[in-house]
Amino acid sequence: MGEAQKTVARETLIGKRIPKMDAPEKASGRTRYLHDIDLPGQLHAKILRSTQVHALIKSIDTGAAKRLPGVHAVITAADVPWQRPIGVAKDHLPLKTGRVRSLRDEVAAVAADSVEIAAAALALIRVEYEPLPPLTDPVEALQPGAPLIHPEPHGGDGGPQLKPGGPVAYTGKPDNVAMTFEYAQGDVAQGERESDAVVEDVFRLHYVTHCCMGVSGVIAEFDASGNLLLHSNTQVPFLHKREFAEMLGIDPGRVRIIQPPIGGGFGSKLDIYPFEPIAIFLARATGRPVKLVYTREEEFEASPTRQPVLLKLRSGCTRDGALTFRAVETLHDNGAYTSWGATTPFVMMQTVSSLYRVPHCKYRTRAVYTNNPYAGSFRGYGNLQATFAVEAHMDRLADAIGMDPLEFRLKNAQQPGEVTPQGMHFGTCGFKECLSTAAARSAYQRKRLEHASRQGDASPLKRGVGIASMLHVGGGAKIYPSDGCGTILKIDDFAHVTLITGASEIGQGSETVLAQLVCEELGLPLSSVTVVNNDTDITPWDVGVHASRTTFIAGNSAIGAAKKAKDKILAAAAAKSGRASGDLQLSGGFVVTPEGEKLFELGKFLRSLHFSDKADLVMTTFYYEPPSHHQDREFKGDVSAAYAWASQVAEVEVDTRTGIVKLLSITAAHDVGRVLNRLGIEGQIEGGVVMGQGYALTENLIVEGGAVKNPSFRDYKLVTAPEIPEMDISFIETMDGEGPQGAKGVGEAPAICVAAAVANAIHNATGVRITSLPFTPERVYRALRGKLEAPVWNVPA
Amino acid sequence: MMRLPWFEFRAPSSVAEAARILAAEGPDAMPIAGGTDLLPNMKRRHQTPRTLVSLRRIESLKKVSNGAGLTLGAGLTLTEVIHEPKAQPYGALRQAAAQVATVHLRNMGTLGGNLCLDTRCTYYNQNYEWRKAIDFCLKKDGGICWVATASKRCVAMSSTDCAPALIAIGAKAKLVSATDERELALESLYNNDGIEYLKRRPDEILTEIRLPPAAGWRSTYWKLRRRGAFDFPVLGVAAAARFAKDGTVEEARIALGAVASRPFLVPKAAEALVGKKLTDDVIAEAATLAASRAKPMDNADLDLYWRKQVAADFVGYALRELRGDDMRGTRLRIARQIL
């Protein structure tokens, strides 16, 4: 044995390729998801859904179901007169009273000894309906005389009255408009007068859904004192605590939520849905733990979708390529109830007003009730739809004035330091670098000209390239009163760190990134950290996993806690060694001098603190709230502390004989602030691109007459491995001053502009502009022959 | 989706024993091989057999033997068929088997199972509740065909990939029951009826597929589906031809799958090839003739109009591959693999 080394070299984990901490468990099939958890005495619940798209409930007979051996409870709205409406607009009663408004509507629920018995009991429930005229076309929803979806207050429509002074009911709506958004800057008419080129199109964006491997589910149980424990897949445990407490009329402090490892969220687990209160009602009725897990079909039919949008866009520019105005009007099919999908215009308008510099802008959205499935939040949050339209017009305007589309974009692109008319402050902004990097690495400009010149060739195979870009929140999103996250950090006697964070892990790799950031501060290897992140009784507050916020917000919070721990240790080490604490560092598991000379082994040093006369444990807390603000009533201002940028170039091959589009490659350049975990971020981007590819080419939740026609993975066409394109991913590292180690959020970004880039690539290949999705072979085949009906804007004013 | 209904499970070790069980149990018994289609279908209550007779332990169903041609046991998995050295000369079969579903399903699913695959339809291949919501359909539990409401006949679609390939090759199928056995041309195994799509009696077991000698023949299979994995065919084109030294076609067969309730031969299109070399014009003529027989219904993925429009293209791909064109680029585009 040689002499023990006296110094340690400073090593960093930032930017390295680090496998996810949960990978061994998941890859070996040992992870225990919600589905794998069974509690002693647990019952299994199932929900009876409506067989009618729109109808009045005349009667419900649960007698036979209740008599079935093995059934412990059968409930309908009549059994829970104290239930209250849920969701963004509080327009949704978990168990329906007088009226069903879509096929997914919950009419009754059963808790039984087994799933099979629960299913058999559902078959015994007799519901008598009086059918009403269905409303399944959002355009029709605005016509005078259209059937009304929420004409009466919920709870008062034939069902039991809510208790006087009790929770409020939804008051009902005299029309079908669920939500409206209007935004304006400048004067669009003036912009149009100043334009040399003006283009207008109508775009139609379709239904898609999340397809999480882990379907929705919950296990609810009350203890003997009436405290509620939920094992839940939710993305927003702390917000849910409050909702459930209000629902039950109990103190939120008596609601505890444990999140088992979550098999994907993508926004689908961001809202409260009826199945959760229903499981709670059944747990209360039976006094037993109640497990309710969706079947795959239920997941397709009854969980929320990305919102289908009809969008009219009119844009203009001057001869020399300056954007002049943009006017957007959209119609969203809200479905029968209001979830986060209705609020996505809030993100869409940012893309419309601020992805590029546009002086004059007008944006109006109406989300209307129909008897269709209802729309929720989904990775990208409206931005896929807005970007699809805006980026199509960037190409069309460039064409109109004869300018190269890349030059046109560069000319209008935002840059660092810009404050947009909507009031968004762009600190770091690598947009121009994203554009030029993606274009250079894909040879976009050369290929665009070559491919365009071959449009008239005899070969039926045409290639094309298309570019599109996106802007998205990258530093949290202040849509609730707080956008913060708390951290508790303890270092034990053996220099092992337990990082207790409010941030939820939904497969995106946040555990690993947070552990990395802590290790970076404390000079420890990744194996020295355990992350605890899934129990509201233990973890500090967090607003939830959404808006690409976790690395940024929870990361800053974790760093804050680690810094405090470091300060504490170094102060003690300074006292003990007689050096100034500013001269000391933590590295490689030691307290070291600036030269890297080892002073104390960290574990030993922590033990000496603990077991000394003035015994002390190293434990810290930190709460991080980003420096962003609420927008004003006119939607002006910043909601995020930083913004993410990306440009992607798609290259496609179109077989003009068949209309089959093959996505050959995606060249992506993302301004991510800084790469923290290279392996993780590549995975995020590859996964996002594939999700965007599905949106562009194959995925389509077919809803006809209010019914989902393809509720299975056989018929809902996710992209399969052979379709996945070559990907070339570049990172633009702009080192955001607010970001943890300079990083910005990236969770949603990669999915956002794929469809827009593919649309532009198909146009480059064939000269045909298709304004509706997805680009199935049938659609492309028809479009190439001039037989595709373009979407029309026939929406009543 | 519901759980599996209750059933009895029998696992005989010989064809004779299996046949005896089927005879004794009557039509409420069904043979099961890989189960990759039957078990999910049972969860949707498409089939609710009282007894399942497993064929997996019957070694003789896995036999591969040479004689005049090649005999393949119906119990070979599709993966085994793909990798069987003696089957390599039968290009269409290998290409068809390699495009069935996914690798996991091919590891379980068998050749016999694919040949006996239930017919498929948008209104049928749904779970019980979904079908109940539309008051079921002609094929199962209902009285109306939702694809063609005036139709007295179920128009569910034959979805086997291997059958058109083997029909073009000229294969025969052997059926064994407790009392007799018979051999019939594979195309004769099928009825153009979405419900009674097989001429196999419930007490019969498909035991063997007999392929004629491959000498002098070339064959190919092209499959249309949305994605490069997993999906059932919405068009299958199989073509086989025997060529003279100078490239003149001496004998040919073209079979179509997934455009009717059965796979079928298109003799007119094949005749148009005989005595000729496969020039572009000859291919175009045969492709048009074959495609005119493709009458898909609006009951599968991808829309009807388009499926009709591209049928001739697919026949053309098959014939060009027979001619010896390098079709790897087109294969990659269509099948997403070279095959």
Report on this structure.
The complex is a heterodimer of chains A (797) and B (339). Chain A has 20 helices and 30 strands. With 797 residues, chain A is an alpha+beta fold. Chain A has four domains: 150 residues, Aldehyde Oxidoreductase, domain 4, CATH 3.30.365; 124 residues, Aldehyde oxidase/xanthine dehydrogenase, a/b hammerhead (Aldehyde Oxidoreductase, domain 3), CATH 3.90.1170.50; 87 residues, Aldehyde Oxidoreductase, domain 4 (2-Layer Sandwich); 309 residues, Aldehyde oxidase/xanthine dehydrogenase, molybdopterin binding domain (Aldehyde Oxidoreductase, domain 4), CATH 3.30.365. In chain A, helix 14 runs parallel beside helix 15. Chain A is globular. The N and C termini of chain A lie far apart (85 Å). In chain B, strand 6 and strand 7 form a beta hairpin. The two termini of chain B are 35 Å apart. Classes of the chains: A alpha+beta (797), B alpha+beta (339). The interface between A and B is medium-sized, with 33 and 29 residues.
Compact summary:
Chain A has 797 residues and is an alpha+beta fold. Chain A contains 20 helices and 30 strands.
Order of helices and strands of chain B: EHEHEEEHHHHHHEEEEEEEHHHH
Oligomer: heterodimer
Beta-strand content bin of chain A: 15-25%
Tell me the CATH topology of the largest domain in chain A: Aldehyde Oxidoreductase, domain 4
Chain-averaged pLDDT of chain A: 95
Quote the distance from N terminus to C terminus of chain B: 35 Å
CATH architectural arrangement of the largest domain in chain A:
2-Layer Sandwich
Question: Tally of extended strands of chain A?
Answer: 30
Provide the residue-averaged pLDDT of chain B: 96
CATH topology value of the domain at 71-116 and 157-336 in chain B: Enolase-like, domain 1
Q: What level of helicity do the residues of chain B show?
A: 25-40%
Question: How many beta-strand elements of chain B?
Answer: 12
Strand content of chain B: 15-25%
Q: Mind telling me the CATH class of the largest domain in chain A? A: Alpha Beta
Strand order of the main beta sheet of chain B, please? 4-5-8-6-7
Low-confidence segments of chain A, ≥5 residues, pLDDT <50?
A: 156-167
